[in-house]
From TrEMBL, chain A:
GO BP, sorted A to Z: chromosome segregation; protein maturation
Domain spans labelled MIP18 family-like: 40-110
Pfam families documented for this protein: FeS_assembly_P
Keywords: Chromosome partition
Gene designation per UniProt: LOC110791484
UniProt similarity note: Belongs to the MIP18 family.
Taxonomic lineage from the root: Eukaryota, Viridiplantae, Streptophyta, Embryophyta, Tracheophyta
InterPro entries attached to this UniProt entry: FSCA_dom_sf, MIP18, MIP18-like
Name recorded for this polypeptide: Protein AE7
Organism encoding this protein: Spinacia oleracea (Spinach)
UniProtKB/TrEMBL annotation, chain B:
Function in brief: Essential component of the cytosolic iron-sulfur (Fe/S) protein assembly machinery. Required for the maturation of extramitochondrial Fe/S proteins.
Any Pfam family matching the protein: WD40
Protein source organism: Spinacia oleracea
GO CC terms, sorted: cytosolic [4Fe-4S] assembly targeting complex
InterPro entries per record: CIAO1/Cia1, WD40/YVTN_repeat-like_dom_sf, WD40_PAC1, WD40_repeat_CS, WD40_repeat_dom_sf, WD40_rpt
Name of the protein: Probable cytosolic iron-sulfur protein assembly protein CIAO1 homolog
Segments annotated as WD repeats: 16-58, 63-95, 107-148, 152-183, 201-232, 305-343
Amino acid sequence: MVSGLINANPTVYEKKERRIRDHPSDPTDEYAVEPIDDLEIFDHIRDIKDPEHPYSLEELKVLTEESVELDDKRGHVRVTFTPTVEHCSMATVIGLCLRVKLMRSLPSRYKVDIRVAPGTHATEAAVNKQLNDKERVAAALENPNLVDMVDECLAPSYA
Amino acid sequence: MNSIDEMVELRHLQTLEGHTDRVWGLAWNPTNTNLLASCSGDKTVRIWEQSSSASFHCKAVLEETHTRTIRSCAWSPSGKMLATASFDATTAIWEDIGGDFECISTLEGHENEVKSVSWNASGSLIATCGRDKSVWIWEVEPGNEFECVSVLQGHTQDVKMVQWHPSMDVLFSCGYDNSIKIWAEDGDDDWHCVQTLNEASSGHTSTVWALSFNASGDKMVTCSDDLTIKIWGTDNLHGQSNEGFAPWKHLCTMSGYHDRTIFSVHWSRDGVIATGAADDAIRLFVENDDGQVDGPMYKLLSKKEKAHEMDLNSIQWSPSEKPLLASASDDGTIRIWECASTS
């Protein structure tokens, strides 16, 4: 996208230090159920690249540690992200990136809901509805151009 | 005493494995009730057959025709043809030729994803719908010809499902615009929307994913992303088509039972409503005979938690005498259940 960036001059913030995770579970027991916490889920998505800038979603404060809410017992994850500008047309692409990354990273028993933070997007309800319609997500993921775009954004998150 | 008004439970009989992606749709063959078709994100249809030993095996895999997800499938009333709707913008018609399934025609016209397909009661009409917000009606002509007779515009967002009325040539569609639309012919080969059931008519407040009719066709159940199922009724069934349309009205709403999107609902011939939802559970509802002062009430008869490992996308009662239920899931499997009394 050479012309007309949605947000030409985003504010870039510092990344938080990654914490070192201790593993309390017995390393010899490979069947032990390891509980997942919200910071671990944040680690999966913090390095996703913004669709139009060379910065991570964390650096643009699209995501913070508080973005992830987890109910591990029920297997529910909710990610709330904040678009950099409130008419951001990239919001659905960011949401799709979050969904794909979590789909690939989390065990399949988790139910994931993704939404924009209340009051941060001009068409909040429409964006949220689209991001949580799994049939539309499935169709989008059969679109090679969109998949290329998502994969490019996800690449740094696998590093 | 209503015989189904006792304690019932769903007993798991078999898990059908073979699809390599989520299973979206299911269809029992209406004439050979030993056959079940399933369609999937793996771009294939599988035909499962129940053998004499009561267990199901995969009889055929229909592949190399659709190039994207197959979202739904429907048998013709004769049980000889299967229609499959795909995200590849086409609907394929398959014919059972001595046990082999051949693709005999492809219906093209939708701009993009086709999401649902339905045959009318006589097998002379097919309806399709999709992301392009339109509903298409196709006439079945001799020699495996299928001609589009109408393209219906009216929905403002993508259309998730089309379903013909079980006895009348009246078409029902529902979708992402939270509405249910009813379409009828005016006697002049022109199809029109004769009624819209939306929030103003006590309808749903989010995507309507599916609908199903009771055996007599005077009631309809719909399920939605708004976490409710709703029952609708019409007074004069035979006033449906030419001699004036009898409108449908909201009878009751069941809320508080589901906590994630309800993707599928199906009404059995014995009056049991089954739902399949994104919380991996199957629920059965039945009309409550006690104290119907304010119209019909329904109660939860049974709930099967963790019926699948992941979301349920489709739930279908067998048309046979046997109380069999099939469910399809994001976990890639189909499960067969028997509805059994626990008393």
